[in-house]
Amino acid sequence: MSKILAFTNQKGGVGKTTSTANVGAGLARAGQRVLLVDLDPQANLTKGLGLLDAEHNVYGALLGEYKLKAYSLRENLALVAGSPALSGFEKVKGDELDREFLLKELLESVRERCDYILLDCPPALGLVTLNAYTCAQALYVPLEAQMYAADGLEKVLELVGKVQRRLNPGLSVGGIFFTRHDSRKVLRRETAEELRALHPGLVLTSFIRESIALGEAPHLGKDIFSYAPQSAGAADYQALVAEILTR
């Protein structure tokens, strides 16, 4: 039975999609069977991994228009495409009974065929994100070590507590990790230390440095290991993958 991990942060632009793609690719390189699910209406995970002509997407599957379709990207790595229509999911399904469990029910059909399912959550803490939290076993929160970083994190942790009590008692926070990190900058170093003190045991030792290659790879439809395997970005995500595998 696969482990379901959700990458989440209510703040956009923190490297959530980049992390979903590259952690997934890193796990696949380690021999794990990985399914990525693009739950962000921007569908940047789908576009950034080169899937431009998907006829089936997660939104249509959630609405029951067709069965869940996973597109193979490379060995051990597949993707359920996202859709801009996900922005209307709450309006369409908001009054439905057990609306928080729709994604969990959808993924049951593929869990036996995967080792890991990685969910790329939207930046809003709405019904799509709630569905992800309801079926996930662990959340990973990427953030930048800068002013107000803790504010977004606290909102995520508040929602986690509610989901644990009401919908998914098995949910946990797998870890918090820093992206676009530069430990030479005093503010970033102090913010990182503050968060480690506030959340002991949750802040991972691995962090992702600023990297040009990480920004270039999605424009070519590639993960960092396919695009620049010798880059700092590849080394950082390899370390993050290794740490996730031990938690």
UniProtKB/TrEMBL annotation:
Transmembrane segments: none
Top-rank lineage group of the source organism: Bacteria
Entry-linked Pfam families: AAA_31 (PF13614)
Domain (AAA): residue spans on this chain: 3-172
SUPFAM superfamilies noted in UniProt: P-loop containing nucleoside triphosphate hydrolases
Stated name of the protein: Chromosome partitioning protein ParA
